[in-house]
Amino acid sequence: MLFGVFFGIGGIMFWKSIPYIGISLTYGIVIRFCSAAEYVVCVKAAIFNILDGALSNASLLVPSK
User: Fold this and answer.
1) How far apart are CA 9 and CA 3, in angstroms?
2) What is the CA radius of gyration of the chain?
3) DSSP assignment, residue 64?
4) 17 class by beta-carbon count within 10 Å (0-12 exposed, 13-18 middle, 19+ buried)
5) Angle subtended by helix axes 23-47 and 2-21, to nearest 10
6) Span 35-55, pLDDT tens digits
């Protein structure tokens, strides 16, 4: 539920900022923020070994030759 609140606030802030700084600069800021957030989540997952089970299960989906 908390992520839904953040999603709604982010959407409102995104559409409110377009008239002030332009669509291309707004998209650039959003993409950089999202990629930085993704990096932090992946590093935290790697530190705490959260993704180990998911990666080993994903290897079952790839057909072997």
Assistant:
1) 10
2) 17
3) P
4) middle
5) 150
6) 888 888 777 777 776 655 555
pTM surpassing 0.85? no
The half-sphere exposure of 9 on its side-chain side, counting CA atoms within 13 A, is: 6
The answer to whether 12 touches 26, Cβ cutoff 8 Å, is no
Number of Cβ within a 10 Å radius of residue 42:
12
Report the phi/psi class of residue 64: left, alpha or beta, with left for phi > 0 and alpha for psi in -120 to 50: beta
Contacts of 50 (CB under 8 A, 6+ apart): 44
